[in-house]
Amino acid sequence: SMKAKQLAAWTAVDQHVHPEYRVIGIGSGSTVPYVVERIVSQGAEANKNRVFIPTGFQSKELIVSSGLTLGDVDQYPTIDITLDGADEVDTQLNCIKGGGACHLREKVLAEAATTFILVADYRKNVEYLGTNFKAGVPIEVVPFAYAKVLQNLHQVLNCPKASLRMAVAKAGQVVTDNGNFIIDAPFESERMKEPYTIMAQIKMLTGVVEVGLFCHMARAAYFGNQDGSVTIKW
Ligand code: DER
């Protein structure tokens, strides 16, 4: 719910976005706008020397519309802190990302960041991945290889339900900010208990650009709860 997202975002910003942080990565989704809202509230003085790196079109629009300075990832290959949402986060802080089809650039900024922080509502706070998020592991693939990768998932990785992500507000398939396609690959719960294994197997399939499993990357995860409390995993 909205309040829970805002709670998570504000708490994370207050605890991690220090005045000396100059280069800040901003993720995508519906929770991150509250992150930006809280950073803006730190004031013009605090933000005047900062640059904000986007993880895609939505993130870029959010930065610009909030009056914050847009930075280019080429100029800032090292980022002080990246804050982003997630589709689900397990007890080891592994997470599923890519519900919004932005996980390639999100993972680049997560890896480039000294500190990577997740913000989400209580629905994303699980013991094992796949508990609530049933759509499957998002996989960005180059168009040329999507049918081959689908076949590999069905026949080699034993994931019969893997499918090409079709668009809702557009005829045909989803196309990412990078011009690629998305495959959603639902694995049974036992295998989702070892996300690193699955991530590595998928990543090795030629034509796969990036996998929406972020393993051992986050420093902490903030979850807003319905009762107004915040749960922190680290
Ligand atoms: O796609 C992603 O990984 C985004 O971070 C997104 O899925 C987060 O979801 P939210 O809208 O609940 O913040």
UniProtKB/TrEMBL annotation:
Fetch the Gene3D superfamilies from UniProt. 3.30.70.260, 3.40.50.1360
E.C. number: 5.3.1.6
Domain of life, per the record?
Eukaryota
Q: Which reaction does it catalyse?
A: aldehydo-D-ribose 5-phosphate = D-ribulose 5-phosphate
Q: What class of enzyme is it?
A: isomerase
Provide a Gene Ontology MF annotation, just one: ribose-5-phosphate isomerase activity
Q: Which GO terms describe its cellular component?
A: cytoplasm
Q: What InterPro entries does the database record attribute to this sequence?
A: NagB/RpiA_transferase-like (IPR037171), Ribose5P_isomerase_type_A (IPR004788)
Q: In which pathway does it act?
A: Carbohydrate degradation; pentose phosphate pathway; D-ribose 5-phosphate from D-ribulose 5-phosphate (non-oxidative stage): step 1/1
UniProt KW keywords: Isomerase
Instruction: Give the GO terms filed under biological process for this record.
Output: D-ribose metabolic process; pentose-phosphate shunt, non-oxidative branch
Similarity-based family: Belongs to the ribose 5-phosphate isomerase family.
Classification via NCBIfam families: PRK00702.1, rpiA
Q: What is this protein called?
A: Ribose-5-phosphate isomerase
Record the organism.
Rhodocollybia butyracea
